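In the present case, backbone shapes were mapped to integers, as reproduced here:
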Amino acid sequence: MPASKKTARPRGPARPSDRLLAAALATLGEGVLIAGGRWGRGGFGIAFVNTSICTMTGWSATELRGRPHSFIHADHRHLADLRRWQAKATPGRTFTGEGYLKCRDGTRLYTTWTFSLVAGARGTTHVAITYRDMTAKRRLQEALIHSQRLEAVNRLAGGVAHDFNNLLSVINGYCEILGSRPAARREAAREIGEIHRAGLQAAGLVRQLLAFSRRQTMDPKVVSLNQLVRDNAGIFAKLLGPGKSIALALDATTDHVLVDPSQLQQVLLNLTLNARDALSPGGGVTISTINREINARYHSRIGDTPPGRYLQLCVQDNGRGMDEQTQAHLFEPFFTTKEHGQGTGLGLALVYGVIQQSGGYISVRSSPGLGSTFEILLPEVSEPADPQPTSLGPLPSTRGHETILIAEADPVVCKMVAGILTTDGYNVLASASPAKALQLARRHKKPVDLLIGNMQQAEAAKLARALYAVHPRLRVLATDSVPGPRFSWLPSGAQATLAKPYALSLLLNTVRALLDGKSPAIKALPSRPKPARRR
């Protein structure tokens, strides 16, 4: 009987050799460690490393082999959980986590990791550990979270600033009223003046809050740079704290620049705080000014400072200094060299933005151990400095007779404004809401000549439109915390804006100027800032 033929089985691929498996692990994009299965001091002992883990961390294979796996981990809090996993681990069951690895150059790398039990020949076990670099993704997530937090802070700052502006309008307004009374001026002139000065400083802080929340436009004025530095030197000295000194070297002979004074003050505050953090006990900061003229021959490349006359403002410290890599990213948003949670990375970014908006230029010189110098160039102007409202005087008397309608939600502000206008002779109608204000206007026998209120509210805009339809000679004074767009249907000479908190003297003069149609007075209002000077 013929022997039966055996059916040939199809042959699969040959089993890869150990050398091929090692080569495959070596070329993986993820970092791989293979360690012994026994738990030792510091974790599992490293037996094999692939090329990627060496590239990621900077450690060589020779430096890693034989060490516990925790050698490259910046945080060892995972060891307790890993030890419990190892005691019950079976093939196919993994242990995952994430955290920072220590690199050879001292930097850190954020990774996710997976520990897997691998059964070997003769009952031996090993642990395969894979690491995936998540640093870039982590930074994007942190930047997103940071921006969301900042947006929440921005909204809060804008809301708080609006409420504070109402309170400061009342405080500063009644200071003006008291200061205009001869009896009060004799009895408590100094005390009233101090309250008013504090109110003006508080108003400046509120403007900074609004600027931080990107809800405040620049309000440039011609100021004396030397005087601005002198006025704030005491604040800067307190910020530095004990054991650290401040010196002024104000050598500029012509020192007028066109800037927003409160914004430039914030620039100096940020640079002083930056210097404070770099100083050792006994260190100091020098703030200096000098006149500079940039010659045309130095303006040969794009990015060079344009020719012209400048005021140079320097903030110099003798602190620890910065390396070139830090300086390259210094003005980038969210970049900080401080410990996590101790800095937002926005201080110098805001400094850079304010100087750019002011038509100026900023640069830094620094070396490790030799301190830092921030150099600011601001275009010099020849116009005289704008007057600063630092003292109280008699309120102007405009003696009006027109009808004024006030729509103001804050009852204290409404009462104060109505009272000062009534005292000056105007026929005043006041209400807390635009709807009630419209009812008052309709019941009144005469047309409304001037409407005062927050014109950014939709109801207030409808009120203005309704009044304008009845009385085409209507004037509108918007008293918003933030200057808003003007009405396109109302002539430009018939509308103006006073940003809260405003001085009562300015209110009276603005009301009179609007009613008289004197456009030069209207154009001089602080709510319509001149554009930053460009070169």
